[in-house]
Amino acid sequence: MGLSATVLFWGSPGLLLAFALHPALALHPHRDYCVLGAGPAGLQMAYFLQRARRDYVVFERSSRPGSFFLRYPRHRKLISINKRYTGKANAEFNLRHDWNSLLSHDPQLLFRHYSRAYFPDAGDMVRYLGDFADRLGLRVLYNTTIAHVTLDKDGQAWNGHYFILTDQKGQAYRCSVLLVATGLSVPNQVDFPGSEYVEGYESVSIDPEDFEGQNVLILGRGNSAFETAENILGVTNFIHMLSRSRVRLSWATHYVGDLRAINNGLLDTYQLKSLDGLLESDLEDLALVKDHEGKLHVTLKFLLEEANQSAEAIALPQDDNDNFALRVAYDRVIGCLGWNFNFSIFNSSLRLSSGGAFSKKYPLVKASYESKGSRGLFVLGTASHSVDYRKSAGGFIHGFRYT
Ligand SMILES: *[C@@H]1O[C@H](CO)[C@@H](O)[C@H](O)[C@H]1NC(C)=O
Ligand SMILES: *[C@@H]1O[C@H](CO)[C@@H](O)[C@H](O)[C@H]1NC(C)=O
Ligand SMILES: *[C@@H]1O[C@H](CO)[C@@H](O)[C@H](O)[C@H]1NC(C)=O
Ligand SMILES: *[C@@H]1O[C@H](CO)[C@@H](O)[C@H](O)[C@H]1NC(C)=O
After folding, report:
1. Ligand 1 centroid vs 317 CA: distance in angstroms?
2. Hey, which of 44, 129, 216, 218 would disulfide with 66, CB 3.0 to 4.6 Å?
3. Are residues 294 and 385 in the same domain?
4. CA-nearest residue, atom 11 of ligand 3
């Protein structure tokens, strides 16, 4: 590439001079705005950049937009409502009740034209996002995985540096502003003795037949945990669900990320004194032990450290009434523990760090969504939810399409 650039510029002294002064300019294609990820947030940003006639590009590793929704949610039913009728003609009012559409001037690009279901299929979201990008002619580079992002200090840049993005083929791009819309994609894992026996939500079977007559323990208390339970409720012997804290119901908290009524079948059977149950414990204190029949026993880490080997030797104390249910053996343990932001492509010079305590899974940003570590790096979409976590809907399409 360096060679061809030299050849190209050889005939023109003016450009040759520019090349000599700014080698990076000639070597790396430059964009004012680079967007990482063609999910809902990346496409929404692209739409506004395009309308404002800005110089931008979106990088997408998959061959189409919204690829997260090709796989998730595993049981395919979205919990964002598709309210097609409100009895009102006011478009703004109607949009408030439409949790899936992105903003655009094209009335055909409303989610109500893509699904008749109140809780739509995730495949319809993939189709919708594909149409959104195509019909609006958004500039997306598909099949382009950005493998590394670093800084190039430069006094000419408005913020003192350019962002250098390198793709899987080694092609580098230079950007003045970097907009990160990669979502949360790394399954959260909790480490404890025996955690290797836990099957993750992202890969566990979704065929109910695989769970017939089994005792199942689910770790987690969010929508993915209850979605998983709902799917196998009718075929298991029982399901126990274990999480650090009390289940929060969205109809009580008004927070859409809490447990939604559509997923609460297990609560129903619990309240009605079926065999299923909810338990509370800090997952970090747990240990799982496999007995000689391959069954899994839950115990506490400190008991495991005191004893040495067999499951019997480390059973929970018999007089511990709170833990009565955990004394049974499980056939399977499933982890549904949420997602974290993938920090791995960002060079340490960007100082993109994770938030504290409650917002560890999110990159640390200011109220303006700009990273605390690098000027000109902004986080969009669900990965920016630390700004209004548990307070508002900024982590969801019907929230972040406005922010
Ligand atoms: C992306 O890759 C897939 C297969 O790997 C291919 O079918 C598709 O045409 C590619 N798309 C683009 C825009 O290069
Ligand atoms: C994080 O992103 C990198 C680069 O795309 C990828 O190689 C890696 O597998 C991702 N990590 C996880 C845990 O998904
Ligand atoms: C566990 O093993 C260690 C050494 O292997 C031994 O010293 C200790 O007494 C054992 N503890 C129990 C409760 O058997
Ligand atoms: C981070 O960037 C610096 C300078 O650009 C480079 O020397 C270093 O290897 C990069 N680190 C990683 C992990 O790629």
Report:
1. 58
2. 129
3. no
4. 307
Beta bridge partners of 152: 162
In the reported structure, the alpha carbon of residue 344 is separated from the centroid of ligand 2 by a whole-number distance in angstroms of 7
Rounded Cα gap, residues 75 and 69, in angstroms: 11
pLDDT exceeds cutoff 70 at 23: no
Is the model's pLDDT at 197 over the cut of 60? yes
Which range among 20-24, 99-103, 257-261, 394-398 has the greatest average pLDDT? 99-103
Which ligand does the CA of 151 lie closest to?
A: 4
The mean per-residue pLDDT over the stretch 265-279 comes to 56
280-300 confidence digits (pLDDT tens): 667 888 889 998 899 999 888
Q: What ligand 2 atom has the least distance to the C-alpha of 61?
A: 5
Q: What is the pLDDT of residue 89?
A: 85
Pocket probe mutation, ligand 3, options 308, 309, 310, max atoms within 8 Å of Cβ: 308
390 pLDDT tier (thresholds 50, 70, 90): confident
Q: Please state, as a whole number, how many other Cβ atoms lie within 10 Å of the Cβ of residue 204.
A: 19
CATH of residue 179's domain is 3.50.50.60
Do 130 and 18 fall within a single domain?
yes
Q: Domain range for residue 298?
A: 195-335
* Whether residue 330 sits in one domain with residue 344: no
Domain total in the chain: 2
Q: In this structure, are 292 and 360 located in the same domain?
A: no
Do 222 and 329 lie in a common domain?
yes
d(CA 34, CA 175): 6
In this structure, the answer to whether residues 285 and 372 fall within a common structural domain is no
Quick one: which of 3, 34, 4 has its CA closest to 166?
34
Predicted confidence (pLDDT) per residue in 330-351, tens digit: 999 999 999 999 999 999 999 9
Q: How far is the CA of 42 from the centre of ligand 2 (A)?
A: 18
The mean predicted confidence, pLDDT, of the chain is: 84
Q: Distances from the Cα of 87 to the Cαs of 93, 116, 119, 394, in angstroms?
A: 10, 16, 19, 27
Smallest-distance ligand from the CA of 163: 4
Answer with the one of 335, 364, 383 that is the final residue of a domain: 335
Percent composition of the chain: helix, strand, coil (DSSP 3-state, to 5): 30, 20, 45
For the packed helices 40-51 and 122-135, what is the interaxial angle rounded to 10 degrees? 20
Instruction: Classify residue 346: in a domain, yes or no.
Output: yes
Report the atom number in ligand 2 closest to the C-alpha of 342.
1
pLDDT attached to residue 162: 97
Domain check: are 217 and 298 in the same one?
yes
